[in-house]
UniProtKB/TrEMBL annotation:
GO cellular component term, pick one: membrane
Keyword Membrane: yes
Gene3D superfamilies, A to Z: MFS general substrate transporter like domains
Protein name: MOT14 protein
UniProt xrefs under InterPro entries: MFS, MFS_dom, MFS_trans_sf, Proton-linked_MCT
GO molecular-function terms, A-Z: monocarboxylic acid transmembrane transporter activity
Residues in Major facilitator superfamily (MFS) profile domain copies: 37-502
Phylogenetic classification of the source organism: Eukaryota, Metazoa, Chordata, Craniata, Vertebrata
Keywords from the UniProt entry: Membrane, Transmembrane, Transmembrane helix
Intracellular or extracellular location(s): Membrane
Length: 515
């Protein structure tokens, strides 16, 4: 029923096979500092994704404070979630030029600034700019490096490592829901956002922990993966092979550019040495020129890598399975976000506030979500299990729950469906693994940036759409039905495309046999 690992063009269990050339493993890959990277990513997910999953609490406060429609007010949460993910491709450019550590630290400052400025909001439109845009961009600048760094530091047990780090979303949703509820009750929502902004400064500490691997360490990791990538290329169609064959991203022109840049830097150094007898002012100017030249080289190299990944010969969009993955992402994320934003209102509509105050439904999703990510990660790392099949099964379960949720009008029924939503949505931990297996570690930052950008578009329009439907019908039922059906369309794309990929090579081989 489901595509095998060969069908989709990548292998999951052969990463341990190393080529004939002996390589001394780096102790920081799959161990040592790698676990500090997991811890850093875990804390990032708590502070960013967990906080965003708890925005239903603030959404109710904004409805009472500003007395606007549910559709308009929901745009605040949607902008924050959506922009966090939509800026992914552009954050990939920052990572290429500045590295993950610098990008994450700057993002932590922006995120905290967005929360603090939002405490002084005079209307909903003010929140669009401060919380939606400013905090959203800051969140994106921390989130993508947190995911990419885990992929760089782990060769084996990548699914488990990503699962452990992304469980921070579940922990964060549970903790931040309780924290924001307490802060809003005790201090009001404005002071609550101010305090949350101070807490968000810890994102800078998380970014400081993202110690980059040396180029030598990364090259060793690529060599370890080369054997499995060769096997992968045999099963892929021509579209995927295009990426693999051009994976070095215009190596010849890059070498020429590097040589030219080295000549420029060398000439600057020569002038600097020869000008020692000159005045101190001239020496200072030469040092500035040298620094600017080095910065220009770094920016040009980073931009060349980023540009070639999206628009060059090695464009990721030539991979048909990856394009299907993008289409799926455009519909998927809103189905997960809508319950978090609108569940408090649904509970109030069904007169279930008393039971929900004892144990909130969003907390049920968050807690089970933790176990779902870890368990699905462990299952996917088993040599006899295809990560792709686990990914598809979890998606089918989640879309079934989304379509079933409006039918449940008792607390017990809603709790059961929310628990299944939490467990099946654990497939989020598999997304970086599937992406890396499709495009390779070198293109992970840009490729995963595209995927979370598509998720961001889904998160941006999902909750306002649900609120708009409610304003018209006074019910959330149709919102869940439409979101579930669109989600099913995305899953069908994931299911069909690998079958097409498998069929094309067979047809080609038949034609060659006839010739």
């Amino acid at each position: 029923m489901y595509a095998s690992r060969e069908d989709i063009g990548y292998d999951f269990g052969d990463d341990s096979k190393v080529g004939s050339k002996p390589i001394k493993p780096n102790p920081n890959i799959d161990g040592g500092w790698a676990w500090m990277i997991v811890l850093s990513s875990f804390l990032v997910h708590i502070l960013i994704m967990g906080s965003q999953m708890a925005l239903g609490i603030l959404n109710m406060e904004w409805l009472e404070e500003f007395n606007q429609s549910r559709g308009l007010t929901a745009w605040v949460s949607s902008l924050s979630m959506g922009i966090t993910l939509i800026v992914g491709p552009f954050i990939g450019l920052f990572i290429s030029m500045c590295g993950c550590r610098t990008t994450a630290i700057i993002g932590g400052i922006l995120n905290a600034l967005g929360w603090i400025l939002s405490a002084y909001a005079s209307d909903v439109h003010y929140l669009f700019l401060t919380f939606g845009v400013t905090a959203g961009i800051g969140s994106g600048m921390v989130y993508l490096p947190a995911v990419v760094m885990v992929g760089q530091y782990f060769q084996k047990r990548r699914a488990l490592a990503q699962g452990l780090s992304t469980t921070g979303t579940g922990f964060g949703a549970f903790l931040m829901t309780a924290l924001l509820k307490y802060l809003c009750t005790e201090f009001g929502w404005r002071n609550a956002m101010f305090i949350q902004g101070a807490i968000s400064l810890n994102l800078c500490v998380c970014g400081a922990l993202m110690r980059p691997l040396s180029p030598k360490d990364l090259s060793e990791k690529y060599v370890v993966r080369s054997n499995s990538e060769e096997n992968r290329a045999k099963a892929l169609s021509h579209s995927t092979e295009t990426i693999k064959s051009n994976g070095v991203l215009s190596e010849e022109p890059e070498k020429k550019e590097e040589a030219a840049n080295e000549e420029v830097l060398g000439s600057v150094q020569h002038i600097e040495i020869g000008g020692k007898s000159s005045s101190g002012r001239s020496m200072y100017g030469l040092r500035i020129l040298k620094s600017v030249s080095q910065l220009t080289v770094t920016v040009r190299k980073g931009f060349a890598l980023w540009y070639s990944s999206y628009f060059g010969a090695a464009s990721l969009f030539t991979n048909r399975v990856f394009v299907a993955f993008i289409i799926w992402a455009l519909f998927a994320y809103s189905s997960f976000v809508i319950p978090f934003i609108h569940l408090p209102e649904i509970v109030k509509q069904y007169n279930l506030s008393r039971q929900n105050n004892v144990f909130p439904l969003t907390s049920i999703i968050a807690i089970v979500h933790i176990f779902g990510k870890v368990i699905l990660g462990i299952i996917s790392d088993l040599p006899c299990i295809s990560t792709w099949n686990v990914f598809l099964m979890a998606n089918f379960t989640l879309v079934t729950c989304i379509l079933t949720l409006p039918l449940m009008q008792t607390y017990v029924g809603l709790a059961v469906v929310c628990a299944l939503i939490g467990f099946s949505s654990g497939y989020f931990s598999l997304m970086p693994v599937v992406t890396e297996d499709l495009v390779g570690t070198k293109h992970l930052a840009n490729a995963y940036g595209i995927i979370i950008c598509a998720n961001g578009i889904s998160a941006l329009f999902g909750p306002p759409f649900a609120g708009w439907i409610y304003d018209i019908t006074q019910k959330y039922d149709f919102s869940f039905y439409v979101a579930g059906l669109l989600y099913m369309v995305g899953i069908i794309f994931l299911f069909i495309q690998p079958c097409i990929q498998k069929k094309q090579p067979r047809e080609k081989s038949t034609e060659e046999a006839q010739i």
